[in-house]
Amino acid sequence: MNRETACEVYRRLLEHYPVVGERRHFIDFANPYEALIQTILSAQTTDRAVNAVHDALFSRYPTPEVLARAEPEEVEPIIHSIGFHHAKARYIVGTARRLVAEFGGEVPQTMEELRTLPGVGRKTANIVLSHAFGINVGIAVDTHVRRVSKRIGFTNSTNPDIIERDLVALFPEEAWRDINYLLIRHGRAVCTAQNPKHEQCLVADLCRYYRALNAGE
DNA sequence: ATCCCGAGGG
DNA sequence: CCCTCTGGAT
């Protein structure tokens, strides 16, 4: 697929998805510390759930230094409603302690350093870098991104590293952060693994999978 | 009942 | 690769 078509896909998805009543929204990051902690907490939950806990958490633990002195057991009830609270309480306290002990209380700004923090994987590091620091570090390929990219025709590969390389080559750097989430949203809402909703799809006319489907009949 | 904008661990 | 960890929204 050429860049023009890819960018047309990007434009259509960008215009549509913020408006469609998605139940998830990007967290408004106040500072890198809060951004990091909130993003760790966001794994496998809604941002609404994380936002619901925001004030209680950060009024009690406003800085990495304060959170580092806490015990996971006392943090756990505060974040209970988001789920996975047992592991996540340990993650954020452990992360705060490493920030203080090894990074001078600051959030590191490289993928390598971020990923050494407990609870921070590729996806979380990507989000923190792109949203909190404006550093574009590529596209995190999950199952949604993989499926959608293959169907539309952004890539021919099933290898996540090659898929990322193809996507990165196809979109301008400023778009990486957004295209990442647009593909995930689109994959969940419309381009589902089973019974994709072609009637609702904004980019069906540009989609390789959809065109092949119709050509066969 | 079903799904989940992940990470860690086996 | 597989599994587990959890509550909440729908």
UniProtKB/TrEMBL annotation:
**Function, in words:** DNA repair enzyme that has both DNA N-glycosylase activity and AP-lyase activity. The DNA N-glycosylase activity releases various damaged pyrimidines from DNA by cleaving the N-glycosidic bond, leaving an AP (apurinic/apyrimidinic) site. The AP-lyase activity cleaves the phosphodiester bond 3' to the AP site by a beta-elimination, leaving a 3'-terminal unsaturated sugar and a product with a terminal 5'-phosphate.
Name of the protein in its database record: Endonuclease III
Q: Which family does it belong to?
A: Belongs to the Nth/MutY family.
The organism that produces this protein has a lineage beginning with: Archaea, Methanobacteriati, Methanobacteriota, Stenosarchaea group, Methanomicrobia
- Highest taxon above the source species: Archaea
Q: Supply one GO molecular-function term.
A: endonuclease activity
* UniProt KW keywords: 4Fe-4S, DNA damage, DNA repair, DNA-binding, Endonuclease, Glycosidase, Hydrolase, Iron, Iron-sulfur, Lyase, Metal-binding, Nuclease
- Which SMART domains does its entry note? ENDO3c, FES
Metal-binding recorded as keyword:
yes
Q: What class of enzyme is it?
A: lyase
